[in-house]
Write a structure and sequence with these properties.
The structure is a single chain. The chain has 611 residues and is an alpha/beta fold. Helices cover 37% and strands 24% of the residues. The protein folds into 3 domains: 240 residues, Glutamine Phosphoribosylpyrophosphate, subunit 1, domain 1 (4-Layer Sandwich), CATH 3.60.20; 203 residues, 3-Layer(aba) Sandwich (Rossmann fold); 143 residues, Glucose-6-phosphate isomerase like protein, domain 1 (Rossmann fold, 3-Layer(aba) Sandwich). The protein contains 21 helices and 27 strands. Strands 3-2-4-1-10-9-11-15 form an 8-stranded antiparallel β-sheet, covered by helices on one side. Bound molecules: fructose -6-phosphate. Fructose -6-phosphate binds next to helix 10 and helix 18.
Length: 611
């Protein structure tokens, strides 16, 4: 949420900063801006996407070897030119960008207003910036010290970059709760919210930790804590290629990421799933197997799509390991003073590893003594680092705002983890265990089959794109898939969609059914098949339009449904890895046909770093 870029070195800063902002635009795209120091400090900003800002400043002098840039997802103040970042301090000398929320900004604003400060935006960022400037003037201290003093006073989350016209050789940066990566080049440094703007220049990076301040010059990087003590920067090597963050010939990242799934699921299973040997190798699970299988309870904490993956995990773990599982929305869990018993295990699921609600929920649970296992995609992210142990999904960078390949990566990890735990606990027969290992191994190939020809899904999208509502229904393992299908559709096409357990429909939602309502059933062949066939009949009897995801070879469903999307047969425990794919495509095509920006749906942002 909000993308931050900075450059200091020997090259021109502007092109690097703008390119970086385009790479980070998935984090927020309601306004964009840059600040550059050449002889003087210049700030350019504009409501809209990065390209709108670029266009608006054509012909301006955009020189300088130091610059910062921001692409915004509005929190305080509507998206507008004046609320766009960077903000300038009252003296005009300082410029700052910020990702996060300063919770006590009203009190500070009041304090500053009484001192005669005026504000030209509605943002908490401008308040923090002037607060820093005010401390510098009153304490007659340097900017670095003023920054540290200010940070000790504020409550909330931040990643900030700060530059000073009078010190064009330095970028000051600080983080708490919002990510910051610094790339180390030869006589140059790159700063960003994630590594994507950095990898084409250098693979050596430092992940800045909470409560650290970075003093960044072209040839020096100093990290300090808020007590002004130096901290040794820990340099890591990025394991990411540039191609992974480019569209690679696809029209949209979302479509590319849907089509990457045979490869990303394969990568997730590779080296871990060894069906011939009857083995699953997962270091984080192995090292903590006793804690995991003896847990009196497992609590899964996540948001959005990751929460849906958590629901699949609940079904899988309860069925195979016989351990009670609760799945919690992180935002509710964190504020509920939840009861955590000794031995309880928390599994956190997060693509970005930076989701503020999930992160804080875990911090609270960790303080209460819980064991935290993280299932995360983004390597080195805050949740990955906070967890006691974990497993990466290895899905590669997910740029499309709507999560697709990260979801199937989460399902793949969860499936392996559940089976490994069940085998260790003795709650699964050897036959079933072995069968499921082979079932999992076959998934990438089966996903590829679904993706081979998607023209019929495109035709279904065309047929139903003007509907104003959709209902998604599923049972058992396919219930979370129905929820995920509904979430995808509303995100990308802005059509109201709801997901329900298919049997729950008759307790209310069936009242919505008429000849205008498309109802999507996830109706693959599983233990609920007969029951879901009856549910389809109930909708047809009320003239609803039925679209089904069905198993290949099913002869019954197509005779009842108006439209059918087939997926290969699979054991129901791994079925969601297949049944979700047509739903991802359906929402992609509906969004596309309605003319929307499917990679950057309105009001959304990837990596929700505010609560
Ligand atoms: C939906 C989507 C969101 C995220 C949610 C959690 O397509 O992407 O619902 O799943 O914001 O994000 P992570 O997984 O990064 O914690």
């Amino acid at each position: 949420m909000c993308g931050i870029v900075g450059y200091i070195g020997e090259r021109q800063a502007y092109p690097i900063v703008v390119k970086g902002l385009k790479r980070l635009e998935y984090r927020g795209y309601d306004s964009a801006g840059v600040a550059l120091i050449d002889e003087h400090l210049s700030v350019y900003k504009k409501k809209g996407k990065v390209a709108d800002m670029e266009e608006a400043i054509v012909g301006q002098h955009l020189g300088g070897h130091v610059g910062i840039g921001h692409t915004r997802w509005a929190t305080h103040g509507e998206p507008s030119d004046r609320n766009a970042h960077p903000h300038r301090s009252a003296s005009g000398k300082l410029a700052m960008i910020h990702n996060g929320i300063i919770e006590n900004y009203m009190a500070i604003k009041e304090e500053l207003t009484q001192k005669g400060y005026h504000f030209s935006s509605d943002t908490d960022t401008e308040v923090l910036l002037n607060f820093i400037e005010d401390i510098r003037v009153n304490n007659a201290c340097g900017l670095e010290e003023a920054l540290r003093i200010a940070l000790k006073r504020i409550v909330g989350a931040y990643c900030i970059l700060l530059i000073d016209e009078d010190d064009p050789d330095t970028i000051l940066a600080a983080r708490k709760g919002s990510p910051l990566v610094i790339g180390i080049g030869k006589n140059e440094h790159f700063l960003a919210s994630d590594a994507s703007p950095i990898i084409e220049y250098t693979k050596e990076v430092v992940y800045v930790n909470d409560y650290q301040v970075a003093i960044v010059k072209k040839d020096e990087l100093v990290l300090k804590n808020l007590g002004n003590e130096k901290v040794t920067p820990f340099i890591t090597k990025l394991d990411m290629e540039l191609a992974a963050i480019e569209k690679g010939g696809y029209d949209h990242f979302m479509l590319k990421e849907i089509h990457e799934q045979p490869a990303t699921i394969f990568d997730c299973l590779r080296g871990r799933l060894l069906p011939e040997a009857g083995l699953i190798k997962m270091g984080g699970v192995e090292a903590n197997i006793d804690a995991l299988i003896n847990a009196p309870r497992i609590i899964i904490v996540a948001c959005g799509t990751s929460w849906h993956a958590g629901l699949v995990a609940e079904y899988l773990i309860e069925e195979t390991c016989r351990i009670p599982v609760e799945v919690e929305y992180a935002s509710e869990f964190r504020y509920r003073n939840p009861i955590i018993h000794p031995g309880d295990v928390i599994i956190a699921i997060s693509q970005s590893g930076e989701t503020a609600d999930t992160l804080v929920a875990l911090e609270n649970a960790k303080e209460k003594g819980a064991f935290i296992f993280g299932i995360v995609n983004s390597v080195g992210s805050s949740i990955a680092r906070l967890s006691h142990a974990g497993a990466y999904t290895h899905s590669g960078p997910e740029i499309g705002v709507a999560s697709t390949k990260a979801f199937t990566g989460q399902l793949a990890v969860i499936s392996m983890m559940a089976l490994k735990m069940a085998a260790a606990k003795g709650t699964i027969t050897t036959e079933k265990y072995t069968e499921l290992l082979f079932e999992l191994q076959a998934i990438p190939e089966k996903v590829a089959t679904i993706l081979k020809d998607t023209s019929h899904i495109e035709a279904i999208a065309e047929k139903y794109k003007d509907a104003s509502d959709f209902l998604f229904l599923g049972r058992g393992y396919n219930f979370p898939v129905a929820l995920e299908g509904a979430l995808k559709l509303k995100e990308i096409s802005y059509i109201h969609a709801e997901g329900y357990p298919a049997a729950e429909m008759k307790h209310g939602p069936i009242a919505l059914v008429d000849e205008n309502l498309p109802v999507v059933f996830v109706a693959t062949r599983d233990r609920f098949y007969e029951k879901i066939v009856s549910n389809v009949q109930e909708i047809k009897a009320r003239k609803g339009k039925v679209i089904c995801v069905a198993s290949e070879g099913d002869k019954v469903i197509p005779t009842m449904a108006d439209d059918t999307m087939f997926v290969p047969d699979a054991d129901e425990l791994v079925g969601p890895l297949l049944s979700v794919i047509p739903l991802q495509l359906l929402s992609y095509y509906v969004g596309l046909k309605k003319g929307y920006d499917v990679d950057k749906p309105r009001n959304l942002a990837k990596s929700v770093t505010v609560e």
